[in-house]
Structures are given as structure tokens and as C-alpha cells.
Amino acid sequence: MRGFSHLPVFVGVAWLFSGVQCDVSCKGTDGHPGEAGAPGRNGWPGVKGDKGDAGGSDVLLRIKGEKGSRGEQGDLGPKGYQGDLGSPGLPGKPGLPGPDGKRSDQDGDQSAFSVIRNITTYPSFSQVQSDVVNIPGHFKTSTGEFICNISGVYYFNFHSVAKVSVCLAIVSNTLENKLVFCDYSKGGEQVLSGGVVLQLTAGDKVWLESHRDLQGANVNADTQSKQIIFNGFLIFTAQ
């Protein structure tokens, strides 16, 4: 048994020499392909490419179609429900000032007079003692006549105070008849008034007359004070 203890050593050495000799003098068979490996990681992003051509007009025409004709109007829809009334809005801003009004002057649309006659006899009213108002002078104190210069509608009146009977008349070339007012005294002071509205045109005249023929001889001879006030003014001008 001891003589066989070196036998494996010899066999191993012989196998080693045979293997070295085979690597030098001979070629082994090809091995089998290995199994597929695991997927690799994503690569880095590539470089941005160049901008492409926009294409010609024919390309644009192929992309965008032609505009179609307008369609017919559809039917009117039903009326909606009325909404709730909203709260009042804020006050608006003041408007712009209006144009300046027309300023009246003496030759414009003003015409008014008030004259007083205070005398004891019964002459015509041309004898005026004083004029309280005469704007712009359309009443002529020399003749006792009002001469219209502004066509329009006027109001005339008179007031008289006397201790005898008095008859006075408003007269105008526009009136067919005189407007006569009389007050027959029964003692004490008598107050007489009368008035009229007249439509006049430029050149028309209005005046006051006393009527002695309607009074008795004793009245005409009376020398007591007789005061008469004659007034007139323009209400509005003719359009």
C-alpha cells in the first residue's frame, strides 16, 4: 500500500503536461452564446436639429381651406325671462354748461310803461304829469299814446280815483270799438279800473280817453283832484 501512494501525483503531473501541450498545438470547440444581458440606461439627449422649411404658398393653401359663404340666419329664439330689477345706479356726472342765454336790451324784447295823470279837469290823457316807468320809451308822453315797436301780446290797464263820476276808455287802432268803463259817484271817492289784452304789431297804437259826453254838466265843471294811472307791458313776443 505504501508503494502506491505516489501514483496520483504522477497522474496529475501527466495531465498537466498534456493540457499545456494541447493549448499550444490544438484549438478547442466554440462555446455557446451567452444569455441576453439586462437593458442598459437611457442615453443623453441629442443635439437640437435645424429648423425645417415653412413650405410654399401652395402648401399653405393645402393646409388652410377657403372661406365658406355666410350661412342663413337662424330662427329667433324664445324670449328669456325678465330678470330682477337691479339696484339704482350712482348719480351721473353734471352735464356741461349750456350756451349763454340771449341778453335783452332796450331795443330787444322789453316794453313796459306806467304813467300818471293828476289834474282837476277832463282834458285828453295827452297831458301826462309824470312817467314812473317807460322802458324803453315806447309810451310818448307828448301825445299820451303807446306806440308798439315789438310785435307781440300786451296787457293794458288803468286805475282812477275821483270824487265824481268818471268814464274812461281804452282805445286802439286794432279795436273796432272803444272799451269804455264808467263809475257813477254816489258820494265819496270812486275807484275805477279796467284792462285788456291786445295782440299788436309794430306801429299799432293804444291810448286812454275820458268821455265828458257821458257825464253831467256838474261833473265836467268839477275841479276836485282826479288821479289816473295808465299801465302797459309786453307779455310775450310774436313767433
From TrEMBL:
Residues 61-73 have a biased composition (Basic and acidic residues). It holds the Pfam family Collagen. GO terms for cellular component: cell surface; collagen trimer. Coiled coil: none annotated. Residues 30-109 are annotated as: Disordered. The keyword Repeat applies. Residues 106-239 form the C1q domain. InterPro entries: C1q_dom, Collagen, Collagen/C1q_domain, Tumour_necrosis_fac-like_dom. Its main location: other. Residues 1-22 form the signal peptide. It is found in: Cell surface; Secreted, Extracellular space, Extracellular matrix. One of its GO terms (biological process) is complement activation, classical pathway. Keywords: Complement pathway, Disulfide bond, Extracellular matrix, Glycoprotein, Hydroxylation, Immunity, Innate immunity, Repeat, Secreted, Signal. Core component of the complement C1 complex, a calcium-dependent complex composed of 1 molecule of the C1Q subcomplex, 2 molecules of C1R and 2 molecules of C1S. The C1Q subcomplex is composed 18 subunits: 3 chains of C1QA, C1QB, and C1QC trimerize to form 6 collagen-like triple helices connected to six globular ligand-recognition modules (C1q domain). Interacts with CR1 (via Sushi 24 and Sushi 25 domains). Interacts (via C-terminus) with CD33; this interaction activates CD33 inhibitory motifs. This is Complement C1q subcomponent subunit A. It comes from Oryzias latipes. The gene is LOC101157838.
